[in-house]
């Protein structure tokens, strides 16, 4: 029997080291797929496709199991070491620096979906575009209704041609402003979104950190500020949580018309606003659906005019 997952993600499951103006933490549970699936799980069950090494702490696995996150496709590579990332944020928290990236198990990972797997919504979170493509090759369309993708400067610089191949085949790209400019060589984000649409994805979502988000479809445009917070503690995972909230909502509603996309972007912004209030996944682990709904109402009140 075919397993119909409402939402599947491939991305990194990582051990991070993070330095912000407010403190330093050396072993933080992170990774694009971890943040994404945790955030999305407030809306729908998520199947996580990723690889870790034998050193992957069992407490981290337990964190994922707190939520409806399927781990049947979380591979443990014998003798391997988990992906590690070290980053630092300046006092302007929009400015992030990658200090170290250790790909480790990603270098030999060959994602293999069970033949009977059929996700309805697929998110290719930030990871090597070759691995994104391998998963894309194993899913059936149009049974999979929407494929969305994320990336970052690391892959835009190192694997541009592989990334362009992936972009031709996805419906939606979510990227931040800096990556948009790097990918398109265009400074103006409206022009840059059009260039990305010519590369493949009909819908483009550009995240601008504390300055909010822009949503472009073929003929419509929407802009939303970020939820204004008095204190931002650690921006790590904001982008992945945004994507998780957005895709989780789309998968739950099982539609992706422009009005639903607008709501999804608002939910993504709300979830990301919670993520940055604490280190790592700390805040999301305490989050409730009631808090999400309350903040969304407040957000609507702030933005309405
Ligand atoms: P963001 O949502 O953009 O803040 O993403 C933060 C997460 O991305 C961290 O938890 C890292 O483990 C992960 N990450 C950092 N660099 C990479 C990379 N090159 N590929 C995939 N994931 C990464």
What's the arrangement of secondary structure elements?
Elements: E1 7-10, E2 14-20, E3 23-30, H1 32-40, E4 46-53, H2 58-65, E5 69-70, E6 74-77, E7 83-89, E8 96-102, E9 121-124, H3 129-136, E10 146-150, H4 153-158, H5 160-167, E11 172-176, H6 177-184, H7 189-199, E12 203-207, E13 213-216, E14 221-224, H8 238-253, H9 258-275, H10 282-286, H11 289-303
The structure holds adenosine monophosphate.
Adenosine monophosphate (AMP) binds at residues 12, 14, 16, 30-32, 35, 85, 101, 126-127, 152, 154, 236-240.
What does this structure look like?
The structure is a single chain. This protein is α/β, with parallel strands linked by helices. It has a single domain, classed as Ribokinase (UDP-N-acetylmuramoyl-L-alanine:D-glutamate ligase, 3-Layer(aba) Sandwich), CATH 3.40.1190. It is 37% helix and 24% strand. Strand 2 and strand 3 (23-30) form a beta hairpin. Helix 1 packs across helix 8, helix 6 crosses helix 7 (189-199) and helix 8 (238-253) runs antiparallel to helix 9. The longest helix is centred in the C-terminal third of the chain and has 18 residues, at 258-275. The protein is globular and about 55 Å long. The chain binds adenosine monophosphate. Adenosine monophosphate (AMP) binds at residues 12, 14, 16, 30-32, 35, 85, 101, 126-127, 152, 154, 236-240.
